[in-house]
Input
Amino acid sequence: MTTSKTPSRRITQRRIAELAGVSQATVSLVLNDKADGAARIPEETRERVLKVLRETGYVADPAARRLAGVGNKILGVFTYEPAFPTESQDFYAPLLSGIEQAAEDLGCDLLLFTSAPVVNGSRRLFHEHNRLRLADGCLLLGVEMDHAELEHLVADGFPFVAVGRRDVEGVPYVAIDYASGTAALIGQAWELGHRRFAYLHVDSRGESVLDRRAGVVDELERRGGASAVEQLLTIPSLGDDLQRDWAAIRDSGATVVVVETAEWAERLHEFAARDGVEVPRQLSMIVLSEPGRGGGSVEFTRLSPPRTALASAATSLLARILDPDDDVRPDELRQTLPCPAIAGVTLAGPAEATE
Amino acid sequence: MTTSKTPSRRITQRRIAELAGVSQATVSLVLNDKADGAARIPEETRERVLKVLRETGYVADPAARRLAGVGNKILGVFTYEPAFPTESQDFYAPLLSGIEQAAEDLGCDLLLFTSAPVVNGSRRLFHEHNRLRLADGCLLLGVEMDHAELEHLVADGFPFVAVGRRDVEGVPYVAIDYASGTAALIGQAWELGHRRFAYLHVDSRGESVLDRRAGVVDELERRGGASAVEQLLTIPSLGDDLQRDWAAIRDSGATVVVVETAEWAERLHEFAARDGVEVPRQLSMIVLSEPGRGGGSVEFTRLSPPRTALASAATSLLARILDPDDDVRPDELRQTLPCPAIAGVTLAGPAEATE
DNA sequence: ACCTGATGCTAATGCGCATTAGCAACTCGG
DNA sequence: CCGAGTTGCTAATGCGCATTAGCATCAGGT
Output
């Protein structure tokens, strides 16, 4: 596919003007509800134009509108990796569902930037053929986002919103308060008597990952000071050898393991069953996310991040930023939604030391 | 959100022309590899322009290109219902995955028409603010599609491809051969000795539903003539009372039940277990689709429709239709992929009559 | 010297909108 | 009658591309 064929011709405002006996400028004014005020077009003329518009089923050409400087209620959606393959679905589907719903409510279409090439294992938003300018604004989705690209967008003044917290200065976002949610669960474990914690997390610099970590570390420090943090076993993992991660957790003597992803928690739970370790009697488990569509066989004590609501709120914020009639206050450019927790059945007091 | 704010200004071909000391026309010719042939621009000039293009990171404005009659490698994607909510995911996710992959390979972006309003329970492609014209062409997804809209598209000459077979004249599509796949499974059951069939299907006029039904009916007629078809119990269902459907199946004395959706099959299997009906010893089950992401607990004898490959092929066909250098033969405008079957464990010979 | 063909570009134009300054005609008040 | 204000539009323009007819210059042949 080198170059596309030219789409077929359709009715234009010029033709509408001929049929209604007015000028193209008048058609445009009527179509955009600018027939009163400065334009001063009488009702009789306006009705005549509206009638022709209706009869012909005229629809404005979005490309012409864009070139004339008017937006088209098209929201770009950029995902830092493919959104639909089975491996990514659990991450992206709830977000896309929220975005789709919000877009529908707002009467917006979504432009998915699937042409973005992969460079060093990650997609690039800025590339030779990027079509950012067809969208009024853009939503960014992904665990880790390229800081240079974020800075580029901010410097360009191109309207966008990141889904999830971002450290880069000037980046508008809607986030989930993973830090507080995590801290609350750690606090519960502490109250139950746990003192030795293991923390298995995704080896990533993504802000949602860092926030969860901060929740763990800061709450432990608050509860038990530096020594409590020293006792914490932190395992950054790529999930490529959970067996080894499990062994490290057991070796540490931790009485509770905090796992970032529900998938990994399921696996650890299987290892526990295999090794005769009873959960939560002998080892408690806390999960900092929820299982995807596959569901889970265990009712983990966990965070329940409102990810669909998150994406929906991000979409609404972008719409507000794009609305010339909406004055978005600076503090509204960064929003954080609370992260509820589910009690579950995998957290109990530590077993009496028997080893 | 009434009207969108104007995006920020960016570098244009005019500015590139100034920097390179040529005209805007020359920049365009160089950018689009038309510097040789009729345009006759020497290599030295061409290199000078390319250098400025590189240094400035210039990207063409897609709206201007569209208005000038050139495509932008943007494929519209229209789903007859929201694509991402949990209830729709099993249907749309594999399709979208195939589309995304093909789009990525082709360097295309996807424009999801989420602004389409819902009329009488279904989305309308043609509406006041449709942005069809921003896309080079469009993919249509859904079980049932509005025939009037399909005819409208055909009459307009707007390039599109339907995912799944469509009866409307002139509609290009890529389909799965549900009829043959279904017939093969019915044939197997017949060979095993089954003579009393029950068929539970979605109450819909969608072509994929009709094709499966044709597969059942035609194969039974072929095997056993009119009397075999007379013996067939056909249950059109909305899935709202599967208990009642199950009772009808049992009352019919059918020795094999053919179920259109994997979800319904799972439910019927539960009813069977509850009622002490052994599958497949006392009742065989054939499923005409596959479970979604949730997986299934039963290894049903079933069709395994290649839905991701289907959508990918449809995307490729659309790309070919859009490519001015690609002469698509009329017979290529309608393609049908074979539908493999999985043997599974739910089909065996009928039990000896014991009732 | 004149004519023809080749070379190196460019001026002009159009795509379909949105916007606005301004023209012609009319009305009213002084 | 004249001037100011109002009404009803419209001509003109620009947005940023892609396309193409055509101009100026040069070289070679007659």
